[in-house]
Write a structure and sequence with these properties.
By secondary structure, the protein is mostly helical. The chain has helices at 10-17, 19-25, 31-53, 57-77, 84-89, 96-105, 116-138, 144-158, 164-179, 195-198, 206-219.
């Protein structure tokens, strides 16, 4: 069984482990929706960490299978195996059929690096789906294609697979789609505004993080 996150309070754990998405979630006024995003991001972080932590793909597949079976058990009989993420997921208003597919979507991450269109397709199936789930939770009118380039830019930048020029190009390309994203859904993508800071190996500090995310939410744009 994977280690339970510490501290057990998921919100506090997310603030430490994933301050970008945690900060974006602070701009969700609906308490239940904000809580659901915290659970979604906590699950995603647990799954995404597996390929980074294992050197043997078979071990990675076994750990992802644990999560798949655990979510299936949750849907079947409410079993949570005592894991805080599963406990919290039990009360979430998320499309659970898609949530249940998240562990298998990470299996491809165990096979090594990809390039070009294959890499973008993998991002769409993982980080893009999670960002879309968050946006849809905030506003059912949100669409997957509206957030695709935001997810691509941020993931490529954080992995060091795109420089500032490439990130800027992706965000510019996705600006028209984001312009039609419902206002309520924008906190699901606001942290993608940090892609430029991550490009080239950078890392935004807490002040810059707060400024970029706040500006993105207030203007409805990723600068």
């Amino acid at each position: 069984m994977p280690d339970a996150p510490e501290p057990r309070d998921l919100d506090s754990a997310l603030a430490l482990e994933d301050p970008d998405r945690w900060m974006s979630s602070r701009f969700v006024s609906d308490r239940d929706a904000r809580s659901d995003l915290v659970v979604l991001y906590s699950l995603d972080n647990a799954l995404a960490a597996i390929p980074r932590k294992v050197s043997d793909p078979l071990i990675g597949e076994m750990r992802l299978a644990w999560w798949r079976e655990a979510i299936e058990g949750l849907l079947k009989d409410g079993s949570t195996r005592g894991h805080p993420v599963l406990e919290a997921l039990k009360a979430c208003r998320l499309p659970m059929d898609t949530v249940a597919s998240l562990p298998d979507r990470r299996i491809a991450d165990l096979t090594g690096d990809l390039e070009d269109e294959a890499l973008l397709a993998r991002i769409d199936e993982t980080d893009g789906v999670v960002m879309a789930l968050a946006a849809l939770r905030l506003d059912p009118a949100a669409r997957v294609e509206q957030v695709a380039d935001a997810a691509r830019a941020l993931t490529l930048a954080r992995r060091g697979q795109a420089d500032r020029a490439a990130v800027s190009h992706i965000l510019k390309r996705g600006r028209r789609a984001l312009a039609s994203l419902p206002v309520l859904a924008f906190p699901a993508v606001a942290h993608a505004g940090l892609a430029g800071a991550y490009a080239g190996g950078g890392r935004p500090g807490p002040i810059r993080r707060r400024l970029v995310i706040t500006t993105a939410v207030m203007t409805g744009r990723l600068l």
